[in-house]
Amino acid sequence: MHVFTTAADLQSFVEASRRAGRRLGLVPTMGALHDGHLHLVQAAAADCDDVVASIFVNPTQFNNPDDLRLYPRLPEQDTALLAGAGCTTLFMPDVAEIYPQPTVLRFDFGPLERVMEGAHRPGHFNGVATVVSKLFHMARPHRAYFGQKDFQQVAIVRQLIADLSFDLELVVAPTVREADGLAMSSRNRRLSPEARAAAPLLHQVLTQAAGQVRQGVAPTEVQAQALATLAQEPQFTPEYFEVADAQTLQPLARYEAGRAVVLCVAAHLGGVRLIDNVVVE
Ligand code: AMP
Fold first, then answer.
1. Would you name the residues annotated as active-site residues?
2. What residues does each domain of the chain span?
3. Which of the residues in the chain have pLDDT under 70?
4. Is 29 in the pocket of ligand 1 (CB under 6 A)?
5. Order of strands, sheet of 50-55, starting from the edge strand that comes earlier in the sequence
6. Cα of 254 to ligand 1 centre, how many Å?
7. How far apart, in whole angstroms, are the C-alpha atoms of residue 32 and residue 44?
8. 126: alpha, beta or left? (left if phi > 0; alpha if psi -120 to 50)
9. How far is the CA of 218 from the centre of ligand 1 (A)?
10. CATH class of the region 2-173
11. ∠ CA(83), CA(98), CA(25), 5° rounding?
12. What pLDDT, in 10s, does the model give residues 89-98?
């Protein structure tokens, strides 16, 4: 596996790879890798000749300094996991390599970012769109792999690709979960044993709510019951639970035939912020 820390080295590698007619897949990550990330790498390895994985804890997408400071960093372990999963090229830049100067350009995704993560984490999607654009330019992939775990991020990246005419295909992979339903996340490492024991409630609430959506229970009622169930567990502080249109991400007043619904939740659990979602077709 090649390991590059500079954009110039990565770019000369991917240019040579493209000239040789090889297909490139990109898997952007922030490291502290788990099976969710490795599933994306395996999917890329099945489709592409070269798989570039990036590990970069992107400061501009963190709106909480403690979250950035405490974000787990395990470069050696990650390198070994990536090599075993079929990654051919690891890009591990430092902050100065990605941000030689502060960026001035600001992204505005309109209604897509006025809800959920965008509403609760000001500047988050500007940081995501900035770093994803830079990685697309540096890695020049034919395909880029993202997880449904970050549902709103996928919608933002889809819009970014369309609006800026990035010549690549977006591939979205399903959320990989622990046996008890908890969505895998690098932040799960920070959960205390007590918080970890309570954590599966997040997915249970989503599954219960998905059943209610299928039965036609009104969106506001589904939302109220989900928030009430989370509030019963003293370790949880719910931030939001939304019943939204899966395309526009706007909260639903009522269901429309033929339109998929997404249920998205964010909650704090023992000082760790977790998100999860379920799509109801
Ligand atoms: P992160 O390192 O958290 O920025 O995530 C890197 C990529 O892995 C993103 O596209 C995430 O959506 C995806 N990802 C994170 N957790 C999971 C999971 N449990 N299942 C599938 N993909 C995931």
1. 37
2. 2-173, 186-280
3. none
4. yes
5. 2-4, 89-91, 50-55, 24-29, 143-147, 169-173
6. 30
7. 19
8. alpha
9. 31
10. alpha beta
11. 40
12. 999 999 999 9
* Amino acid sitting at position 218: A
Instruction: Kindly give the number of the ligand 1 atom that is closest to the alpha carbon of 153.
Output: 12
Centre of ligand 1 to C-alpha 147, Å, is: 5
Inter-residue contact 119 to 144 (CB < 8 Å) = no
What CATH number does the domain located at 186-280 have? 3.30.1300.10
Which residue's CA is minimally distant from atom 17 of ligand 1? 36
For 102-149, write each residue's pLDDT tens digit.
999 999 999 999 999 999 999 999 999 999 999 999 999 999 999 999
Closest residue CA from atom 6 of ligand 1: 29
Indicate if ligand 1 lies below 6 Å from the C-beta of 58.
no
Candidates 61, 76, 166, 182; CA nearest to 124 is 61
- d(Cα 66, Cα 59) in Å, to the nearest integer? 11
Amino acid letter at 62? Answer: F
**Is the distance from the beta carbon of residue 37 to the nearest atom of ligand 1 less than 6 Å?**
yes
Decide whether any atom of ligand 1 lies within 6 Å of the 135 Cβ: no
